[in-house]
Amino acid sequence: MAQWQTPEELEQLLTELVSWQSRSWTEGERIFPHHLMNKLTNVPYFRENSQNLTFFKTPDGREGVNALYLSGKSRRTIVLLSHFDTVNTEDYGHLENLAFHPQRLTETLHDYKEELPEEAREDLESGEYLFGRGVMDMKMGLTLHMSIIARASEEQWPVNILLVTVPDEEVDSAGMREAVPAIRDIQHRYDLDITLFLNSEPTFQELGDEHFYMYSGSIGKIMPAALLYGKETHVGNPMSGLTANYMATFLTQKMEWSPEFRETEMGESTPLPISLRQKDLMGTGYSTQTPYRAQVLFNAFLFKRSAKDIFELFRKTAEEAAEACNSSYEEVCRREDVQPLGKVEVMEYRELLHYAERKLGKDMVRIYIKEVMEKEEQDDREVAVRIVDKLILHCQELGPVIILLFATPYYPAVNSSEDPVVMGAVDVIQQKAKEAFDLTVTQVHYFNGISDLSYVNYNGETEGWKAFERNSPVWGERYTIPFEDMEKLRAPVMNLGPYGKDAHKRTERLHKKNAFQEIPVLLETLIDYISERD
C-alpha cells in the first residue's frame, strides 16, 4: 500500500511537516524544501526516478520543489499547487514554543481554555480539531498532495501528476512567480497537456460559518499607492507651508471603503478598498520642520478588472481628492488672509519618471534609482515609495503634488466557473460528498483568501498588465510577474482543501475528520473524473 493513506498516517505526516517550521523569511523556510525532498525520496517511484524531483529558485535563493509522476499512458496532467511558508507565531504568546507541535499544543490548550474565544474553546472541547501554526494554511494541503502523488505512482494512475510547492506565498509570492517558468519548462520537456491546476488552500469562513466550500477561481489583489509632496515650513509659521499629512487625509477619505472599487460577479462581491499604510517620510527623530512628504498605501480586490482599470479609477479618485483638498486649503487661506502656495496636482509615476529624465538625464535618474534599490533592508513597498521620493526631491518645482504608483505584490484574479471541465467536476464532487459523508459542498466562484492560482491561466489583455509595469517603481529589478508564461499555462483552476478556522490567528485549527477522511476521498474523486474524461 502507498504511504500516507490512512487518517493516522496523514495526521502523522502533517505534524511532521508542521514541525519543520517555515515562517516566511526565516532559515526554516530555506531548509524546508530539502526536508521535503528527502521525504519524497522515500516514495518508491521517486527512488527509481530521482530525476523527476527538482528544485527551482527565487532570485534571493529560496527554493521550491517540483515532483513529477509520469503515467506513461497519457499526456493529460494535473498540477497540484501548494505553499509551505507560514506567518509568524508571536501571537501564541507564552505558548509560542508549541506553535509548531500541533498535538502537544492542542493538549496544552485545555489548561488555558479561558484565554480562547468562545467558538475556539468549543471546538477545542469537541476534540474534533487540531490546533497549530500551518495546520490549515497550508501544510494540510501539501500533506494531501503528497498522499495523492504517492498513491498515483504506486497504483499507476493513468494521469500525470505534477506536485509544485513554493515558498513566500504569504508575502510576495516570489515562489509561485518563479514556479511558472519552471512548470512551463517541465510541460515542454515532457510534452504534457495540463488539464487542471488544483490548489488545496483551506476553506475560509467568517465567524460562525460552518459551511464547506470549494472554489472555481481566486480573487485578485492590487495595491495602489501614492507619495504626497507638499511644502515644508517651521511649525511656528504654519501657513508658509502645506503638510503632506493634510493632503493625505483627503485621499484616504476618498479611497477608504469606496464603493466604486467594488466589483460584483456571479452573486459575489469584492471587499471594499482599505488603507494599509499612511505615514510621513520625515524619519524617526523629532523636528520642528513640518512633514511635507508622506505615503499612503491601499489594498484593492479584483474580479474582472485589470491593473489598467484600477489605475484609471485610482487617478479619478485622487483627482477628486486633490480638488477637495484645494478647495479646503483655499478656504483656510482666505480666512487667514494669506496667498495659497499653489494647487495640488496629480501625476502618475511614469509621468514623474519621464519628467525627471528630461530634467536630470536618464543616466543620473538610473543612478538615483540604483541607490535606493541597493538598500536591501527595505521591503519592496518601501523601496517603491523611496524611489518616487528620491525623484521628487530633485523635481520640487512640481509640488504640491500627489504621485500615484503601484506597490507590490499584484495578484491577477482568475476564474474557471464557466469551464466545462470545472462545471462537471463541481457536480461530481458535490454528489460524492453528499453520498459518502452527507456533506454539502457549496461552490464559491472566487477564493477570497488570495492564492497562487493567480499566476496561471492568465487571459487578460497586454495593456491591462502594462499599466502595472509602467507605474511600479521596482518593476524589472526587484519584482517581476511572468505574464507571458502565465498566458501559456491555459488550463482551468480549482481550489479544494480542508475545513479549518482562524488562519493567521493563534487559534488556527483544522477539522480532523474533514482533513483526514473526507477531503482525500473528494480529491481522488476529482482526479478520477479528470483522468477518465473524454
Automatic annotation (TrEMBL):
InterPro entries xrefs: Peptidase_M20, Peptidase_M20A, Uncharacterised_RocB
Q: What is the lineage of its organism?
A: Bacteria, Bacillati, Bacillota, Bacilli, Bacillales
What Pfam families does its record include?
Peptidase_M20
Kindly provide the name given to this protein in its UniProt entry.
Arginine utilization protein RocB
PANTHER family, per this entry? ACETYLORNITHINE DEACETYLASE, PROTEIN ROCB
